Amino acid sequence: MDTPTADNVYTVSRLNQTVRALLEQALPLVWVEGEISNLARPRSGHIYFTLKDADSQVRCALFRNRALRLRTTPENGDQVRIRARIGLYAPRGEYQLIAEHLEPAGDGALQRAFAALKAQLDTEGLFDPAHKQSIPTLPRRIGVITSPTGAAIRDIVSVLKRRFPALPILIYPVPVQGTGAAAEVIEAIQRADRRQEVDALIVGRGGGSLEDLQAFNDEHVARAIHACTLPVISAVGHEVDITIADLVADERAATPSAAAERLSPDGEALARAIQQGYARLRQGLARTLGERRERITRLERRLSAQHPGRRLRDRAQRLDELDQRLGRAMTGHLETRAQQIGRLERRVQTQNPGVRIRRLSDSTVQMNQRLERGLRERIRRERARLEASARTLESLSPLGTLARGYAIVQPADSGAVIHRAADVAVGDPIRARLSEGALIARVEGYDETT
């Protein structure tokens, strides 16, 4: 037997610290499932409890910063699953589990299955808003798929009685949890869709644990809701509970009561709106009738003033007046013509037409002779004037000057006229316009003397 020395003798504290280091290094985070007992909650906010099964137990600690993140409050007797590190409480020399996460047993697997199904259906587009139908604002009848004895149907009926008692409701009774619940919910959705006897569906139940809501996290239920041609409102659980049915439905309501409020109009508000509309309608009709009465009165006055019978009487009287005037005019005209004929007969008798015709014929011959003489004289004077003007124009025309041997000199590239020799330089091309044609030349020299 070795003799103990100062180096190989452990104190209790050193031993516990060494064992704790070995435990923490040897074992990673582990999941442990068991039943809670001896639960304690001191004012520090930490939670201490024992996790046990039929044969063993282990002490556990859940510190305050982790305890604040729990969704549920653990109690003695709860079956839970924890994720923990293994440690050692040195003052008592007890090994313990330092919990980092705690959840009810079974919920972890269900939550992972929920997340996987959610991701799958989202990838397939079942949650796409483009596939969602609009919810009717005033349905003629609504259908409810839920338990006929649950709190959900009582809440829905209560809301409908309060808000709009005239709205009919058709219940499709189904179990909302347990074995076979999902299949019955699917069959009820398909039956309602097939019958088309309601304008919208509420699929719902009250709140519950994740296990209680499994019928509404079922893949086939989700696909039945997505395939339904009726608008579907999902009202499963309370506000904190989100199910696959909520995500795939056309609309989600936080509670069954909220779904009933969404589908039912406010009876009092609707009655007020109807009364206001009726009042506006009466006012509009009264205004329209008043305007129509005024228009009819105006038309009656116009019709009275322009009545065909009255106009016919006026026209008949006017016709009589015109007939009388025509008779007087015709009589006067005939009398005037008779007088004219009498005067003409007397003139014819006093004047022989043959003599007058000969006299007018002689006068015509004389006038023709005078006209010919005048025209010949006028033509002679105008010809003389024209010849004088032509001579004057010819004497003034540049062409006449050119015809006498002169020329107009211009730069070859310009239309200007050269008046002085100094206007050009030796070697410049020039153009000399003659009476007939033109010459192109170049300046060889010049003399400025005239």
TrEMBL record:
Enzyme Commission code: 3.1.11.6
Q: Which Pfam families match?
A: Exonuc_VII_L, tRNA_anti_2
Domain Exonuclease VII large subunit C-terminal residues, every copy: 126-441
- This protein's source sits in the domain of life called Bacteria
Q: Which CDD domains does its entry note?
A: ExoVII_LU_OBF (cd04489)
Q: Which GO terms describe its molecular function?
A: exodeoxyribonuclease VII activity; nucleic acid binding
Q: Kindly list the biological process annotations in GO that this record carries.
A: DNA catabolic process
Q: Which GO terms describe its cellular component?
A: cytoplasm; exodeoxyribonuclease VII complex
Q: Which UniProt keywords apply?
A: Cytoplasm, Exonuclease, Hydrolase, Nuclease
Compartment(s) where it occurs, according to its Swiss-Prot or TrEMBL record: Cytoplasm
Q: Does the keyword Hydrolase apply?
A: yes
What reaction is this protein's catalytic activity?
Exonucleolytic cleavage in either 5'- to 3'- or 3'- to 5'-direction to yield nucleoside 5'-phosphates
Q: Residue ranges of the OB-fold nucleic acid binding domain?
A: 10-102
Predominant cellular place of this UniProt entry's protein = cytoplasm
Subunit composition? Heterooligomer composed of large and small subunits.
The UniProt entry's sequence similarity note says: Belongs to the XseA family.
Biological role stated in the UniProt entry: Bidirectionally degrades single-stranded DNA into large acid-insoluble oligonucleotides, which are then degraded further into small acid-soluble oligonucleotides.
Q: What is this protein called?
A: Exodeoxyribonuclease 7 large subunit
Q: Which organism is it from?
A: Spiribacter curvatus
